[in-house]
Automatic annotation (TrEMBL), chains A, B:
Cofactor(s) needed by this chain: Zn(2+)
Full protein name: Aminopeptidase NAALADL1
MF-aspect GO terms: aminopeptidase activity; carboxypeptidase activity; metal ion binding; metallopeptidase activity
Family label: Belongs to the peptidase M28 family. M28B subfamily.
Membrane topology: Single-pass type II membrane protein
Lineage, uppermost ranks: Eukaryota, Metazoa, Chordata, Craniata, Vertebrata
Subunit-structure text: Homodimer.
Domain Peptidase M28: 354-562
Function field: Aminopeptidase with broad substrate specificity. Has lower activity with substrates that have Asp or Glu in the P2' position, or Pro in the P3' position. Lacks activity with substrates that have both Pro in the P3' position and Asp or Glu in the P2' position. Lacks carboxypeptidase activity. Lacks dipeptidyl-peptidase IV type activity.
Entry's localization field: Apical cell membrane
GO terms under cellular component: apical plasma membrane
Originating organism: Silurus asotus (Amur catfish)
Amino acid sequence: MLKKLLLFGLAGAAVFTVGILIGHFGIEQKNSTPLPEWVQQVAQDVDENFIEDFIAQVDSMQIKDNLEILTRVPHMATTAGDEATVEFMLKRWRDKDTGLDAAWREDYTVYLSFPDKTKPNNVTVVRGSDVLYHIREKEKTYFPEQDDPEVVQPYAAFGPAGNAEGKLVYANQGKVSDYELLNKTLGGLTGTIAIVRYGGAGRVDKGINAAPFGVVGVLVYTDPHDINDGKMSDVNETYPHSWYLPPSGVERGSFKTNFGDQLTPYLAAKKDTYRIEEKDITGVSPIPMQPIGFEDAQMLICELAGSEAPESWQGSFPCKYNFGGPGFKNTSRFNDCDVKLDVYNKAGLKDSANVMGVIWGSVEPDRYVIYGNHRDSWVHGAIDPSSGTAVMLEITRILGQKVKTGKWRPRRTLIFGSWGAEEFGLIGSAEYAEEYISKLSQRTVAYINVDIAVFANATLRASASPVAQDVIFTASKQVKIPGPESISVYNNWMKHSNRTSPTYGVIPNMGYLTGAGSDYAAFMHYLGISSMDIAYTYDRSKTSARIYPAYHTAYDTFDYVNRFIDPGFTSHQTVARTAGNVLLRLADSILLPFKCSDYAETLEQYLNVSVQNFEAELKNNGIFMDSLKEAVKSFQAAAQSLEKIISSSDVLNNSPLKARRINDQLMLLDRAFLNPLAFPDKYAFRHVIWASRSSSVATFPGVADAVAKAMKSGLKQDWAQAHKHLSIVTQAISGAAHTLSEAHSAL
Amino acid sequence: MLKKLLLFGLAGAAVFTVGILIGHFGIEQKNSTPLPEWVQQVAQDVDENFIEDFIAQVDSMQIKDNLEILTRVPHMATTAGDEATVEFMLKRWRDKDTGLDAAWREDYTVYLSFPDKTKPNNVTVVRGSDVLYHIREKEKTYFPEQDDPEVVQPYAAFGPAGNAEGKLVYANQGKVSDYELLNKTLGGLTGTIAIVRYGGAGRVDKGINAAPFGVVGVLVYTDPHDINDGKMSDVNETYPHSWYLPPSGVERGSFKTNFGDQLTPYLAAKKDTYRIEEKDITGVSPIPMQPIGFEDAQMLICELAGSEAPESWQGSFPCKYNFGGPGFKNTSRFNDCDVKLDVYNKAGLKDSANVMGVIWGSVEPDRYVIYGNHRDSWVHGAIDPSSGTAVMLEITRILGQKVKTGKWRPRRTLIFGSWGAEEFGLIGSAEYAEEYISKLSQRTVAYINVDIAVFANATLRASASPVAQDVIFTASKQVKIPGPESISVYNNWMKHSNRTSPTYGVIPNMGYLTGAGSDYAAFMHYLGISSMDIAYTYDRSKTSARIYPAYHTAYDTFDYVNRFIDPGFTSHQTVARTAGNVLLRLADSILLPFKCSDYAETLEQYLNVSVQNFEAELKNNGIFMDSLKEAVKSFQAAAQSLEKIISSSDVLNNSPLKARRINDQLMLLDRAFLNPLAFPDKYAFRHVIWASRSSSVATFPGVADAVAKAMKSGLKQDWAQAHKHLSIVTQAISGAAHTLSEAHSAL
């Protein structure tokens, strides 16, 4: 009996133990578990398998199809073609199988400038009332695309209407120094018309710089030297025989300094928003301007009288570039002729749409990763911007399908923006940033911009806030370049462009977003949101083209892309894979894949450049850099200590508030560099590290420009301004360091 | 056997079940539980018992002791007395039994103005070189305190040094309209000295307004009508017989417009920070000023010639207040005399300290509740500011003890600030805000200011951002007023001051923080941090005193408080209980006790006032208020929807990220109203709802002031500015509404 009891006792103990085990582990598997579901949900980290699957699904042929549809007609902002792309984006983002959670349009009433269809702009060579030569009004037709009545005549958007006539002079790139030299050489430029080539100075600056010298009108053209590697003949050299620009091709563009709608500074351009008067708009040319093709430019420049321009002013035309008499040679058929500009541009209010789409986050819906590109083009815009839009649509197709089939939902919210009127000065994205400034500032983790996805098919190119370098590197290591070589995007990039980092040794050379070249501007500079601009680009050993040759012309078409830029669309595919990979890591990682020590490295580099270039001169003027050095040091220390916390953090087994705390520090790091009063003359530039800079010294922009001015003038008040900018950047850096330092340390 | 087996089977089943139960529930109780500790920790809500215990522990005698120590010597900013209070605060906050987690000092090098001890300011009545009368240099001594050599001579801080002589005129309160009337009446004020009384206009404005009329110096005094309910005699009426100001008492003060250090706008005043030149300081008087006692003022005013000033200009002196001839009556012994000001104020850089203390948060250390008060006084400063400091020290004593004994740690971090140089224009708090702008903006939940804790012993008075109304009400309902009546602070407050709310009916009348009266300014206006200012104040049926009579004089002493303001220190105790209660609720509640619908009610009220006062005139000028109305409506809707989410949220059984999301919306609500470019002429005022306002119409300040200007001038450009401010506030309100709307809704 004892034995039996023992046996039963043992059996009972075993049963008891099994009971405990079932109670402890078995029930956990079911819904009635003591471990709440959200505990597991918040511990779900980025899924590498999901990313691999995403990469595998990116389909070059889908991108090609997207591009073909997007580029059927010209779609300049607010035209019927633009409206068709709005509808197309909405249709795709609302698709029941591959669409997003929601998509909608948001309209702004913005100030745009167009040529007058009934009275085209006109450039002529005249002798009294005789017209000897007409500059061509439209680009030459090689395919039906160029014949589309919706191809806008080349013009200088926001250049004033007006009639200007005068003797022609050649002013190189239209920089201040160019006009100074020309003015000195000719003993005055009053009443002249200047012809200048693209490059070296911003479009509008070529006019703004000219006016004070008395120049009355400006022609702008693209020299074959700067864009075509010297190639000029459309018989066998230029498009449609190659990617080079045909002789009649004209780069259109926005001729204004500030981004965003000009009439509603710092306010979203709603119907009844306060608008400044047109006469109060700043940053536009006071004199008429008109862009022309190099065929016509050659006809003018090669006839110019006067002495020979310097070597650096010479281009690819088979003649010597002279300054101009002013005017033409005696021996020319244009002898004694004026050049006449008749510009009829008209500006007015138009409704421009952003198309927005969203996939809501599961765990942190109030954290946004924004991915965007503009939708409007100058003509068909196959590269600019439709290559980027085609890529974005492929990314949203794959992710939309995952969401619709219940296979995935991002941890954070994804917002996709198809911006309007970028070509007129980043207007759609800027108005969006102005309207939602608070919400976006509070919640946005990052902005990814893929505008022109593929300039050329050689290598990845990325510019970004330094915190994002690491995630871009991670993504680019995981994606292979097109073709038979099994080499990563990262390694290929490093081959094409690299630098030596004090921390990492040789790495790909990521750029910084110091200008306002695309829609990242409002995010990076105005809102202080860590931004990225990603594209595929040139092999610089093969071309010196300033930009892809068909840029902003009637030749930027599907055919051009399909035959010359990216046959097979594998570079597009590579960009989609890389940018999508970055997007997913930002969306799904528990800890944001941002690295503040990379920011520290950049600040140290900027500091070193400042010290080398400015410290002695500043000291001579009683201004010392010690506080700036200390600020950079404190930033480095704070970044290191935060990264120590990150690497020692067991985020999976901790309160999600701990990860959130670190993520807030990382998310808000770029915000800490904002100072809305630092640059009163630079519209919406608030980031004291990345604001635009005139000085060629690559360092803190406020300091660089102020010191340059003070060194030139020697004035006490200019040195005071240098001191002011030194204090501004010092406070910004030490303020940013405070945000990185552990909560548990002295404020 | 079968039966046995069945029995054993049943027993086994029972044992098995018990096993399951132990496995399921039993193990949860222990440390090896599957429910991580942090899950319980994050679900710990505010503890009402703890608050009751806190209330019980607030000890009036401790507060009295604190005050006695704090007021032993004069402690004007940067003097030896100030340094002694720095040491005292540090000692208390570092006490091993009752101190905080950490305490430290932070010094700024700031621009302060003092009289010259070796050459006191001097006001005389002169006839040629004969001096007929000397205004007294120091206040009369009733107790040894007034004889302390560290009692600073009355002076107008930041008023310029200079010698001014001229005929005396009486200019009422020194408002622009006062000088206009006087100027018209006398046919010119060039070369005169004006005497004006405190009230009606800011201190410095009395000088700034005077100068354009040719006035060369200004005397300021406190009329017994405005401060003493007419009482004048120190034989039996004024202190030391009552709380009323003795005849020789002089209100000192800061005579400047902008808050913060004047030489380092928007930059923390470190040693080598960029400083503007002294000549570029704005917002100071161009002419010498000097404050005097009413005994001397009576001597001058009652001798003035000229016609009788209007009824509203008359005060309590037993004579008619005339305008002045200019100058004195023929019949006066001062006939033909000038009044002469010799002001020797000197300004320069001094090091001023903030003392900071902290209790680190357990669950959300990166969320800060800041509680502060300034430490510096003009003389002994028993009420201003030491009553507030005595209260703060009692709060930190109780909470410090709880932390040191391991009984409590707040969910969020508590920061205590003892600000320096407030009396010189809120300098310590402003420099702190400038230095830590990013960290504070990102993390601060609220700022609680208790400067003068007890003006008088009648009732609570609170001014705050509307989101904080609810938590102040909750706290004040829980605390009883002093004395035998068992009535809540809330009900007593409602008895003294109330309003009818559309939502709640009759409630206490909480004020708004529309000015820069104390250290909340940098938090509320510059950083957009929801702020509160809490005190005990007058029974308005018993006194019309502009402020407590000893304000900024040598009579604001411990004796004055102990005998007249708060014998027994029970009003101090009540303020400590109420403000401490607010602090604890903000620190410990899982969901922040902020109510955005109360903000909506305020915005609606402001909108209604704007519509009533401005809509017709705006319409006449082609400006419409529809968008503003829509913005307010969208804010109301968003606030309601957020409160629905809050009330339906089961925060205890949800991811803490859900509460954090809502808390971020509430914490950042005031931030959404910031616009750093809205008021370019108002230093550091960025909050478009609460910025200072000149117009008497209590509504959106930018709109109110711009419309007032436009209505006066009728100029088109002034109406354009009104439109601009309408757009600015519209965008701010709709932007704030966006931040409140659910994450899962269109942006």
